[in-house]
Amino acid sequence: SLYAQGVEVGKAAAQARARPPEPPGAMVNVPKERKTFCRGKKCNKHRVHKVSQYKAGRASLYAQGKRRYDHKQQGFGGQTKPVFHKRAKTTKKVVLRLECKECKQKKQLAIKRCKVFELGEKKG
Q1: Would you call 4 helix, strand, or coil by DSSP?
Q2: End-to-end CA gap in the chain
């Protein structure tokens, strides 16, 4: 039964090395610059990227779904499609927008959910 003991020792060691779990929705602080892989044709290696938070742009009036919805809503008959009310989540996933400082290639990186998100704030 040495094998069973070895497995238990391995699990205990792994748990000892793991960081204590943060409460859900804890504050997240991300530096304004980050070195990560750039897929650009010029780079194709790790470069410094400028980090910003992704924000969705204004919805277009001419997108196919919006045109279909507006046409369906016309005339009598009230609301034609369901309006979503049952919000279960209290947070949204944060999406980082990374821009390579060399070739200006941009990519997005989703991180975990959090209630408070800060970019490059000093602790104090």
Answers
A1: helix
A2: 52
DSSP summary character for residue 17: H
The sign one gets for the Cα dihedral 105, 108, 109, 114 is positive
The tokens describing 112, both together, are 């975990």
For residue 100, what are its two tokens?
């390579």
65-88: pLDDT as tens digits: 999 999 999 999 999 999 999 999
- The single-letter code of the amino acid at 67 is R
Residue reference for tokens 């699990």:
11
Q: Distance of CA 7 to CAs 13, 14, 15, 18, 115, Å? A: 10, 11, 12, 17, 37
Check: CB of residue 116 under 8 Å from CB of residue 94.
no
